[in-house]
Amino acid sequence: MTAVKTKRKAKKKTKQWNPNIVVFACNWCSYAGADTAGVSRIQHQPHFRMIRVMCSGRIQPGFVLKAFEKGADGVLVSGCHIGDCHYIFGNERALEQFEKTKNMVRLLGLEEGRLRLEWISAAEGARFAQVINEFTDQVRELGPSPLATGNRKH
């Protein structure tokens, strides 16, 4: 009986750590791109929580910082391609907000690799899967966020 328990503990220790990733996705393109990936059964990492917003330009630095505070190891902001925004210039505003957010994240001492901005259209399910896979691996390499350690449920 003890050997079985020891084997289970060893298995848990060798198990790969999976990061908590928050994805802010615009309703019109990126969220639909994620849906396309799912409907097309494109394999991708499942270690993310999707927050659907009407426009990526709506994502303020406070939203991203709150995600990190609540336990996110990485945050992905995703919207329509430049020139394709349903709100004309929302993704240009997202770019401005992202730069502010990046500066705040840097001031907090977090690695820049924990934050990412991507443009993904509704037809780009494969691209959504690729971005999620790459970002998950990137955050996994960085390890758990130092801000999230006190907020984890074990």
Structure description:
The chain has a four-stranded parallel beta sheet, with helices on both faces. With 154 residues, it is of the alpha/beta class. It is globular. Helix 3 packs across helix 4 (90-107). It starts with a helix and ends in a 12-residue tail after the last helix. The protein contains five helices and four strands.
Helix/strand structural class: alpha/beta
- Read across the widest sheet, the strand sequence of neighbours is 2-1-3-4
- Secondary-structure element sequence? HEHEHEHEH
Taking all residues together, what is the mean pLDDT? 90
Helical content class: 40-55%
Q: Report the C-alpha radius of gyration, rounded.
A: 17 Å
End-to-end distance: 25 Å
Spans with pLDDT under 50 lasting ≥5 residues? 9-14
Name the assembly state: single chain
Count of separate DSSP helical elements: 5
What portion of residues belong to β-strands?
Answer: 5-15%
The 3D shape can be described as globular
For the secondary structure, the number of strands is: 4
Largest β sheet strand count, sense and barrel closure: 4 strands, parallel
